[in-house]
Specification:
The protein has 548 residues and is of the alpha/beta class. 39% of the residues lie in helices and 17% in strands. The chain has 3 domains: 181 residues, Rossmann fold (3-Layer(aba) Sandwich), CATH 3.40.50.970; 172 residues, TPP-binding domain (Rossmann fold), CATH 3.40.50; 174 residues, Thiamin diphosphate (ThDP)-binding fold, Pyr/PP domains (Rossmann fold, 3-Layer(aba) Sandwich). It contains 24 helices and 20 strands. A 6-stranded parallel sheet has the order 3-2-4-5-7-6, with helices on both faces. The protein has a 6-stranded parallel sheet with strand order 11-10-9-12-13-14, sandwiched between helices. Strands 16-15-17-18-20-19 form a 6-stranded parallel sheet, sandwiched between helices. Strand 4, helix 4 and strand 5 form a beta-alpha-beta unit. Helix 3 crosses helix 4 and helix 17 packs across helix 18.
Length: 548
C-alpha cells in the first residue's frame, strides 16, 4: 500500500477541490508544507510580502471563484501576522482556510502543558488559542492519520451555515510524516458509513453491537434501548457502559472482554458484523489489535475521539467520528425507514446467543457455601439494590466479580474505575456519590486489601453520616492476584475490621454464614447512614474466566 507525505497529501487534496492558487509567505516552520506547494504541478504558490494580507487575498479569491481560499503561513510571527486578515474574514463571513506551520509537537507550549510558558520551540506560538475567537474552527493536528478528517471538517465548517475562516496548525513532524492514504478516514465519511452500517446490519448473518461509556456521556441510553428493541441481535457492554441496559433486556449479553461473562468472547469471535458505539475498544475489552473478533468480521467504530480510532483503524471497515446520540438517532431513522430483514440465519444466530446467556450466565455458577462465595455476595448485593441506588466496586476480585454479576435492574447505576481498576477507589467514589445525592443508598463492594489503601476516608464517611453500606470481602487479601499465582502478602498483616469500624464510629456487622445474609442485611439495609459489613469469604476463591 503506497505511502504519502502529509504535506503532499494536503496539496493534492486542495487541488482536487478546485484550489489552483495558495497565498503564502515561506518560513522554516512550514518548510514541508511550502515544498509540497512548490512542486505540485496544479497549484501556484502566490508569494505575498506580509502574512496579514494573505487571508484578505484568499477572501477575494473565494468570492470571485467560489468555494474557499487558502493561505499558508509559518509559525510564530507568521501566524500572528495573519490574525489581522483572519479577523476581516471572520466579520465578513468569508470561507478561508489558513494552514500554519508549527514547531515539532514536543517543542510546543500546548504539548508541554507548563503554566505560564510563553514559547518553547523556534519561533513557537500557541496560535490556536490566539485565533479561536475569530475562527469557526481551529485545531492543531497531532495525529498524521487525522489529516483527511480535519481537512474535510474544516472546509465543511467554513462553507456551511454562516461561512467564515478556519485554521489548521501543523507541526513539522506531522508535515513530514508519511501515511497510508487508503487508511485515512474523513469527516465526510460519517454519513456514508452510517448508511453502510445500516446496509451491513441488514445483510449480516451474525451481527453484534458493542456499547460503552460514550452512550451515557451523550445521554443516548434511550436510543440504545430503542436500537435493542429494533434489532434482533446481541449487545455486549464495556465496563463503564455496563449499566446502560439491565441484564434482563433480551439483547443484553452483559460485560465483554477478559473480565466479562463466561460466554461473551465466544459471541465476539463468531460475529460477522460488529458495530462499536462509544467504546474505545481497549485491549481488555477487545483484545490486542482487536484479536477477540472474527478476523473476517466487518468492524465499524463510532467514537468522538480521533486518537481512540487511530490506534485500531487498520482493523476497521469504517469509522464514524460522531457523538453517540447523534449517530444512534441517524441510524434509527434509517432502520425505521428501511426495516431489518430477519433471515433464518439471523434468527438462528440470536437464538444461539440467547442459549449462551441461558446456560452460562454468571448467577448460574453462584455457590451457596461456607466460606462464602464472592459471587454469592455480589448476587445478594445486586438483589438488595432498588431503584435509585448506586453500586460501587473496587479493584481485584470485587471489581471482577461485580462486572460479571450485577444486573442493573430498575435503573440502578454503577460507579467504578474503568481503565485502571485502582485499589481503594471505592471509598472515595462512594463518598463523592453520597455527597452529590444524600437521598440515595450507596452499596459498595470492596476487598480487605483495597480497604487499607484509603482507610483514612472512613472518618469522612462517619463524620458526614453518609448512607454508604460498605461490604468488605475478607478472604485473606488479593484473591485476584493469588488466583493467578502471584501473592506476597503475609496473612498476619490482615486487619481486624471490627476494631477498624469501632475506631471510626461506624456500625459493624459480620456475615460468616451465607444462610444468615438476609437476616443480618435486614438490620442495616433500610437504616440511613454508614455501615461496615464484613463477609468471611473463601480464600481459595476461583474467578469465572471467559471461554475463548
Amino acid at each position: 500500500m503506497a505511502k504519502v507525505k502529509v504535506s503532499d497529501f494536503i496539496a493534492d487534496w486542495l487541488y482536487k477541490r478546485g484550489i489552483t492558487d495558495v497565498f503564502m509567505l515561506s518560513g522554516g516552520g512550514a518548510i514541508h508544507l511550502d515544498e509540497a506547494i512548490s512542486k505540485h504541478e496544479g497549484i501556484r504558490g502566490v508569494c505575498i510580502k506580509n502574512e496579514a494580507t494573505g487571508p484578505m487575498m484568499a477572501e477575494a479569491y473565494a468570492r470571485t471563484k467560489g468555494g474557499f481560499g487558502v493561505v499558508y503561513v509559518t509559525t510564530g510571527p507568521g501566524g500572528a501576522n495573519a490574525v489581522t486578515g483572519v479577523t476581516e474574514c471572520y466579520v465578513d463571513s468569508s470561507p478561508v482556510l489558513v494552514i500554519s506551520g508549527q514547531s515539532p509537537i514536543n517543542q510546543t507550549t500546548k504539548n508541554a502543558n507548563i503554566p505560564n510558558l510563553r514559547s518553547f520551540g523556534i519561533q513557537e506560538l500557541n496560535i490556536i488559542d490566539v485565533v479561536k475567537s475569530i475562527t469557526k474552527y481551529a485545531v492543531m493536528i497531532t495525529i498524521p492519520e487525522s489529516i483527511l478528517y480535519e481537512l474535510e471538517k474544516a472546509i465543511s465548517v467554513a462553507t456551511s451555515g454562516r461561512m467564515g475562516p478556519v485554521w489548521l496548525d501543523i507541526p513539522l513532524d506531522i508535515q513530514s510524516a508519511y501515511v497510508e492514504e487508503d487508511n485515512l478516514f474523513g469527516f465526510s465519511t460519517n454519513k456514508k458509513f452510517t448508511d453502510k452500517i445500516s446496509e451491513d446490519l441488514n445483510n449480516a448473518k451474525r451481527p453484534l453491537i458493542l456499547a460503552g461509556q460514550g452512550i451515557k456521556n451523550s445521554d443516548a441510553v434511550s436510543e440504545l434501548k430503542r436500537l435493542a428493541s429494533c434489532l434482533e441481535c446481541p449487545i455486549i457492554l464495556s465496563r463503564l457502559g455496563l449499566d446502560c441496559l439491565p441484564y434482563s433486556n433480551v439483547n443484553n449479553m452483559g460485560l465483554g472482554g477478559i473480565k466479562g461473562t463466561k460466554f461473551n468472547k465466544l459471541i465476539m469471535g463468531e460475529a460477522d458484523v460488529v458495530i462499536a458505539i462509544g467504546t474505545s475498544l481497549s485491549v481488555a475489552f477487545a483484545g490486542y489489535d482487536l484479536s477477540f473478533f472474527n478476523p473476517n468480521a466487518k468492524i465499524y467504530m463510532v467514537d468522538i475521539e480521533l486518537a481512540e480510532i487511530t490506534k485500531v483503524q487498520h482493523r476497521l471497515s469504517g469509522v464514524v467520528i460522531k457523538d453517540a446520540q447523534d449517530f444512534l438517532r441517524g441510524l434509527l431513522n434509517i432502520l425505521y425507514a428501511f426495516p431489518i430483514r430477519y433471515s433464518a440465519e439471523r434468527k438462528n444466530w440470536f437464538e444461539h446467543c440467547l442459549k449462551y446467556k441461558e446456560k452460562l450466565s454468571t448467577k448460574l455458577f453462584v455457590k451457596e457455601q461456607n466460606p462464602i462465595d464472592i459471587y454469592f455476595v455480589a448476587k445478594k448485593i445486586d438483589e438488595m439494590s432498588k431503584k435509585g441506588d448506586i453500586l460501587v466496586d473496587d479493584a481485584g476480585s470485587s471489581y471482577y466479580v461485580a462486572g460479571q454479576t450485577f444486573s442493573f435492574e430498575n435503573g440502578v447505576k454503577e460507579i467504578t474505575s474503568g481503565a485502571y481498576a485502582s485499589m481503594g477507589l471505592s471509598i472515595p467514589l462512594s463518598i463523592g456519590a453520597a455527597i452529590a445525592d444524600p437521598k440515595v443508598c450507596i452499596l459498595t463492594m470492596t476487598g480487605d486489601g483495597s480497604l487499607e489503601t484509603n482507610i483514612q476516608e472512613l472518618k469522612t464517611l462517619s463524620y458526614y453520616k453518609l448512607n454508604v453500606k460498605l461490604f468488605i470481602i475478607n478472604n485473606g487479601g488479593y484473591i485476584s492476584m493469588r488466583d493467578h499465582g502471584r501473592h506476597v502478602e503475609d496473612e498476619n498483616t490482615m486487619l481486624n475490621i471490627k476494631k477498624v469500624a469501632d475506631a471510626y464510629d461506624i456500625p459493624y456487622y459480620l456475615i460468616d454464614d451465607y444462610k444468615n445474609f438476609d437476616t443480618i442485611a435486614a438490620k442495616f439495609k433500610d437504616v440511613y447512614g454508614p455501615a461496615i459489613i464484613e463477609i468471611i469469604c473463601d480464600s481459595e476463591q476461583k474467578l469465572i474466566l471467559p471461554i475463548c
